[in-house]
Amino acid sequence: MENEGLKTSPRCNLHCPVPSSVLSSVPYSYCQPRCARTLKIWSHVARGTTFRYTYLHSASRSLSPLHQPMEARIFRLWAGRILRLCTRRSSGAPAPGSGATIFALSSGQGRCGIAVIRTSGPASGHALRILTAPRDLPPARHASLRLLSDPRSGEPLDRALVLWFPGPQSFTGEDCVEFHVHGGPAVVSGVLQALGSVPGLRPAEAGEFTRRAFANGKLNLTEVEGLADLIHAETEAQRRQALRQLDGELGHLCRGWAETLTKALAHVEAYIDFGEDDNLEEGVLEQADIEVRALEVALGAHLRDARRGQRLRSGAHVVVTGPPNAGKSSLVNLLSRKPVSIVSPEPGTTRDVLETPVDLAGFPVLLSDTAGLREGVGPVEQEGVRRARESCNFLATVVASVGAQSPSDSSQRLLLVLNKSDLLSPEGPGPGPDLPPHLLLSCLTGEGLDGFLEALRKELAAVCGDPSTDPPLLTRARHQHHLQGCLDALGHYKQSKDLALAAEALRVARGHLTRLTGGGGTEEILDIIFRDFCVGK
After folding, report:
1. Residue 487: predicted pLDDT
2. pTM above the 0.85 mark?
3. What is the pLDDT of residue 181?
């Protein structure tokens, strides 16, 4: 049907094809178009014909910013919103929250004391009534003890705690129910099958609960990424960083930057539209330039963090290298607290790079044991030596036993460790004074281990960042890409001699910050982010 569900603006007698909620935020000049071309286009839009697509698209581009700039920009903005609305309606894409009700086991698989099953969607309350019939819905956000029964046979399934979260005050923004049942496989399977028999319910896909929370504005994209990192966090530092991002620190920072750009863009647009009038305050463009320069400094500082946030997510690489029989394998076994490498007095026991993930002082680390560095050995051990030298060329941190050469790359970090300190005589001479700064350690007795771990923690904090004190870190390559794009656009703004081009550069810069937090993101990007979530989250 033509114009079904459309609202009429209370401020004009034109039939506007936008919801009243959108229309209420539109400036008065949107509903009182003054040029004949706008009125002509509105007549086609009001009739709801398919002609509106091509006409609106071509007309919005044909209105030059130099000809009636205020009306042109207002119309182009409004036409774009109308086109997006019409496209969404013609494609049949459902509005957020209008889909089916989903359910899934949110706690881990396997036997446990308590398992949590939850639903989200408009039929959640109906499902709760059916499984607990003839009881009514419990008070919102209060745990109630209920007997769950199979709606098909009436057979009791379990006595469980149920919680009712009416939307929008829920995790997803929709009506939600949580069933806290006993964690036996038979109980969980019975409740899931009972939910599957309720009309309008279907099993959730991986990450679908969080995706609905994002679609309903409960989480922005950086908070979604923080939630995913929190679920996968294995160390204390990873947990701290993920929790800070989930709390919205990175999102708040980006929104503040976006507001700065919005203000600067408003100053430039005002000068374009009213520059010839005397109503503008003095120094409008100068104020915009000051704000842009300050933002450039802030963006540059975050882009120079050497990808510490990404390294903290994925883990730092620490290599133990040195001459044969220096105690490398003993040190790896000591740090990993398990027999990763064979320890033998025979030189050349380790002939390959042995890697094991460990938690060192709260930081995720991939610890590598390598072959002893020496010449004149057989082809197998020589290949191990070659791999050991190759490993040292690509690392952020190197833990070297005595005799190892410092990496040629000055950006790499080196800890010189003198092992077997238990062989030193208390009365005898210590290490030579010509040695660089070093640490004494005995893998046999553990003497010096605490000092070594503290030094290693400081090195890892420098490489990965300290989530307890540092500003919000960029945890993904996507963050780096958008901040770099924003910084490049600000560079174009500074170089622009034409104010219209300068304003466009500010719009591009602001668009990068908006997409970083989830505004205007494509479905492909969202699919990549949500695919790492488990079912039930």
Report:
1. 92
2. no
3. 94
Any residues with CB less than 8 A from the CB of 331 and at least 6 apart, and which? 320, 399, 401, 417, 419, 441, 443
Element (H, E) at 120: strand 112-120
pLDDT at 175 over 90: yes
Q: What percent of the chain clears pLDDT 70, i.e. is strictly above it? A: 70
Token pair for 527: 């699919």
* Alpha carbons 469 and 146: distance in angstroms, whole number: 46
Phi/psi for 156 (5° steps) reads -65, 140
Q: Would you tell me how many other CB atoms lie within 10 Å of the CB of residue 489? A: 20
Which pLDDT band, with edges at 50, 70 and 90, does 22 fall under? very low
Q: Which residues of 83-102 are buried (b: 16+ CB within 10 A; e: fewer)?
A: eeebeeeeeeeeebbebebb
Helix (H) or strand (E) holding 529: helix 523-530
The answer to whether the CB of 279 falls within 8 A of the CB of 534 is no
List the structure tokens of 4: 């079904």
User: In the chain, helix, strand, coil percent, each to 5?
Assistant: 45, 15, 40
Indicate the range of 53-57, 94-98, 127-131, 157-161 predicted with least confidence.
53-57
Q: ∠ CA 491-492-494 to the nearest 5 degrees?
A: 65
Q: Tell me what pLDDT residue 103 has.
A: 95
Which residue would you say has higher pLDDT here, 330 or 8?
Answer: 330
Q: Which two tokens stand for residue 278?
A: 């005397």
Half-sphere exposure of 214 (CA within 13 A, CB side): 26
Nearest in space to 452 (alpha carbons), one of 297, 311, 335: 335
Q: Do 396 and 316 touch, CB atoms closer than 8 A?
A: yes
Binning pLDDT at 50, 70 and 90, where does residue 508 land?
Answer: very high
Cβ density class 380-401: b for 16+ within 10 Å, e for less: ebeebbebbeebbeebbbbbbb
- Supply the mean pLDDT for the chain: 75
